[in-house]
Amino acid sequence: MRDGVRAFLIAACFLLLASPEAYGSTGFAFLTTTIQIAAAIGLLVFTWDRWRRNEPAAPGRRYEAAFVTAATILVVVAGRAWLHEISIHPASTTALRADTRLLAFPGLMFVALACVLCASAESLSGRPLSAVAWLALLAVLAFNEPLRQFASRAPMPVYWPLLALLAWFVAREWWVRAAIAAGVLFVVGAGMAAFVPILLMAAWRAGRRPFVAAVVVFVAAAAVPFVWGGGDGHALQVGARGTHAAADTIGLTGLLVRAGWSSAVPPVHLLAMIAVYVGAWFAIGRGSRLLPWMGLALFALVATTPHPSGDSYFDLFVFFVFAALAETGWVETRHTARLWMVTLVVAAFVSGALLWSDVPLDTDIDVGSSGSRSLLARGFANDEEDGRSFAWVEGTSADVLVPRRSRRVADLVIVCEPHLPKRDSTQQMSVALNGSVLGTVDLHEGWQTVTLPAPSSAWLIGVNDLRLSFTNAISPLEAGLSADPRQLSVAFDRIAVQTR
Asked: N or C: which end of the chain has fewer CB within 10 A?
């Protein structure tokens, strides 16, 4: 029952992130959502210690096959949904000549597999209701629209497995190992500093030696990148990619900004953090579990920070997923490092399999068909049909997203027709891939095929930005051909990649 209730409340938090859109993104929507999420987090934290362990149950395998089947389907559905969202949005940052969102993809899959782990453990332990609750949480992750949008823009999941490691170390009261994990998390995400005071409080309660050791290893883990990399140590931080203004974020900061009380944000933030840490100090003294208070500290930071980002709520909710997993009876009896490593390896393997199956080697975009519309990022008019499907470019430039799982040398094949309203009209097309110019060609009248070589250095593994530029655009109305006022340059039928 305990684990099922926790899974239900965490799932409710993920669902509530969509509330502002459902309510119309008004001040009332953000106020209501803030209250609802605060209530869910409060219930989660203050009922955490109600049951230390699940009720005894006889192990059983009656539902094992059904749970494994359902979990496998949901993991695949979730992974494919996240990959689809990534493929229809341009890459925000790159690393190692790859889209950073693909590098973070195993972190997303790690969370999904953590839910599968809990569901399987509860099923094997004879607790089918708790297993169903964890599968329901996995279903929420698979179909949650805010999480899909988050996957398409943020590289933050790259460090989520470290959140799991921190939670598992804290659950076992391994303060030195937990301090190392917290130090690394502080480097990659500064908001993780919210955990540190509570972690050090627990170490202090455990004794002076654990406290001193925890402080030393935390400072060392947090400082090494800055000492090693000098002033560029901050470059390791993975920033949130929220695109909303402060007023349009869930939490007290947005509400204060909307009310015109921006000056009240810093003191409210300071008071909220102090209140949580004071409460945590007395709760730890009474023997309360540490993980829920660490989650509450992160919630207080996210909800009151002077520089809010809606994406930070995913860090918070994912931490609670790992905290609940860390205190599952089945997980508590396993070797922590081995279980964590196996889960990470499986997440990487599943991510690689999904990338191989869903991200093409040779992308073939049928411009003008509804199935390819999501890859036409900018500049294209509506789909048309005249013996073939095509779409005109309005203006003198357009962007196309080209997903590809390889950086091998390839040819870019473009089937197009220029708009040449007069006999003396000319049209040139320049093609650039991720900022690397592939070439400029003169287009003649009628449909034609243009082939340009794309070297390995121009490609990214992931979503590639193909920019098409033209020398001129003119409307049929201006040319006296029809009443069409659109400024047309070139019509496209097909854009394909052919690996050599």
From this structure: C
